[in-house]
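Weekly structure sync, notes
Attendees: PL (lead), two postdocs, one rotation student
Agenda item 3: pending single-chain targets
PL asked that the sequence for the first pending target be pasted directly into the notes so everyone works from the same version. It is reproduced below exactly as submitted, 109 residues in total.
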Amino acid sequence: MDWPQTLTLLGGLAAILFSLFHQFDKRFEQVDKRFEQVDKRFEQVDKRFEQVDKRIDDLRAEMINRFEQVDKRFEQVDKRIGDLRADTTTRLDRIERLLERLLKPELSR
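Predicted structure, written out during the meeting:
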């Protein structure tokens, strides 16, 4: 093999290798861009999860507050029922004593 032919073959081989490396480089750039897009998407999804978590926490706090308000209202109603029961019992006792006083003279006859 003579040198001019070898240099031509090596030059052609170098051109082919350069073309392949250039294509690999472009492909790696595309893959790198795709990874960046995926990373951005993950960041967006992560932010969305944080928003959802905050909303869930806000709703939980709101529901707990509402339950506490309902509990207070039930306590007020229970107290009112207790007060009315005590008042009714007192009135019935008073009516019963009045009836006993009224009926005692008639029973002793």
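Discussion points:
- Helices lie at 3-108.
- The longest helix spans residues 3-108.
Action: rotation student to compare against the earlier draft before next sync.
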